[in-house]
């Protein structure tokens, strides 16, 4: 098959959508399909242009058999809601000449659009109309719902216009895929019938990410003692997670020197969190940069408790990608989720984590104490690893997606 993919993030991103998109494209290329990717220069989650990429020009490269065409874009140092809009619009402008060339060069069997940004779908939709390609909108994050529910934009007319465009794009797509049952329900509520929806969950390489001992972990290089009880948050530091509650919890444990909070990663909220931790005099909170992917198992092994946090308003809009790695590593995850959401249901059903109500520092403190004292911790860890191996295996998830593409091509 010939496949053209649009997305603002791609490998070598270590977290979020770019990581999954890169692995998806590499997998399809390894199966003999011709895959082209139109994306931006790497910048995420640091919100800084990666070394070796031009600031104002385009660049073409081959990654694992995938043709990757990278476009310049505005990268704000402090990504506020308005700056993110400008950031995404700049990307839409810069991909125009690449899209135009692709539109009239050859026909693709499929054009896949990664959402967000939701309005990126305009380009793939025109490829579908002009060249007869089948369009798949893959939704990693219901961006407009998040913006609305978190009140990141308060202009009602603008929000309604964004919802209208989103519904239009979904309805004009041949298929709309997404990563969780909860998001499928949200998409169905927008008028998209079940026969047009594909469940395409995020996956994990459970052969690569696996349980390790504390002795094998990064504890020593992080300056942590073997006797420390470590509460770890690792991943993107954005506005959906409610990370300020980590500092509230750390304040409650300030006099217990055996409990250390470790925050690893990057993102728009990192600088603010570091400043707040300093102002509060939190010596029990340590910040570290994003670690290389090859060290992920060793990083996850430092933790006695893993934090998977999100604000209540976003609790059924995103499936935290960091959770897949924690499960594969056999970690004890403390997860904020609202009862009745897909995340809550799957964790409760398989007993593979500890669930608490989001948006409460008090509940977070109680949850951390429960995890550190729980006699069920080892059983939960075993359940987590088992679920990752059985339900999130990389080869199985990507193989099922390829099968759906082949079947759709022949119908």
UniProtKB/TrEMBL annotation:
It comes from the Bacteria. CDD domains: GT4_WbuB-like. InterPro entries: Glyco_trans_1, Glyco_trans_4-like_N, Glycosyltransferase_grp1. Residues 15-203 form the Glycosyltransferase subfamily 4-like N-terminal domain. Residues 216-385 form the Glycosyl transferase family domain. NCBIfam families: PRK10307.1 (NF007640). This is WcaI family glycosyltransferase. It comes from Algoriphagus pacificus.
């Amino acid at each position: 098959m010939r496949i053209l993919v649009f997305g603002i993030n791609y490998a070598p991103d270590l977290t979020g959508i770019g990581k999954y998109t890169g692995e998806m494209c590499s997998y399809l290329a390894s199966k003999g399909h011709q895959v082209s990717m139109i994306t931006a220069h790497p910048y995420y989650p640091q919100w800084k242009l990666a070394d070796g990429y031009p600031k104002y020009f385009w660049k073409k490269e081959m990654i694992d058999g995938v043709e990757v065409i990278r476009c310049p874009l505005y990268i704000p140092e402090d990504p506020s809601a308005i700056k993110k809009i400008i950031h995404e619009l700049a990307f839409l402008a810069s991909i125009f000449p690449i899209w135009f060339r692709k539109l009239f060069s050859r026909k693709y069997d499929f054009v896949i659009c990664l959402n967000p940004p939701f309005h990126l779908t305009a380009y793939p939709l025109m490829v579908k109309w002009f060249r007869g390609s089948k369009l798949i909108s893959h939704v990693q994050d219901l961006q407009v719902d998040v913006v609305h529910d978190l009140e990141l934009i308060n202009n009602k007319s603008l929000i309604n216009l964004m919802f209208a465009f989103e519904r239009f794009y979904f309805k004009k797509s041949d298929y709309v895929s997404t990563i969780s049952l909860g998001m499928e329900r949200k998409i169905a509520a927008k008028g998209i019938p079940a026969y047009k929806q594909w469940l395409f969950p995020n996956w994990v390489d459970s052969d690569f990410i696996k349980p390790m001992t504390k002795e094998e972990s990064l504890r020593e290089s992080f300056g942590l003692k073997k006797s420390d009880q470590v509460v770890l948050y690792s991943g993107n530091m954005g506005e959906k997670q409610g990370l300020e509650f980590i500092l509230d919890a750390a304040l409650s444990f300030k006099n217990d020197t055996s409990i250390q909070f470790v925050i690893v990663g990057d993102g728009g909220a990192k600088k603010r969190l570091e400043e707040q931790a300093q102002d509060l005099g939190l010596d029990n909170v340590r910040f570290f940069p994003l670690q290389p992917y090859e060290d992920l198992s060793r990083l996850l092994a430092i933790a006695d408790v893993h934090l998977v946090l999100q604000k209540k308003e976003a609790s059924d809009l995103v499936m935290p990608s960091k959770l897949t790695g924690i499960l594969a590593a056999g970690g004890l995850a403390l997860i904020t989720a609202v009862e009745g959401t897909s995340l809550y249901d799957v964790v409760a059903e398989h007993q593979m984590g500890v669930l608490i109500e989001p948006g409460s520092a008090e509940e977070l403190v109680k949850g951390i104490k429960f995890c550190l004292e729980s006699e069920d911790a080892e059983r939960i860890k075993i359940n987590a690893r088992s679920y990752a191996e059985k339900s999130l295996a990389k080869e199985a998830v990507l193989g099922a997606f390829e099968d759906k593409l082949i079947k759709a091509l022949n119908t």
